[in-house]
Design brief:
Length: 70
Amino acid sequence: MVAKGEARAVVEARAPAVQKGNDSLRNWVNSELVKLGEEKFLHQLYQQYLAPNLAADTKPESIIVEGGRW
């Protein structure tokens, strides 16, 4: 149980899945991930929502993967 005002870490991985053999959809998803990476979309969300609640020395790269490249 978490006391009121305490933070609780929740780790959830999110990734799109495509049915095997659906190459056109897979290619589209991959190209959209690359575009989002070029825009630094996840870094923007990190700065807006996560950074204020994390230690100052936390690196975004330790939490997010930008552009669909692990």
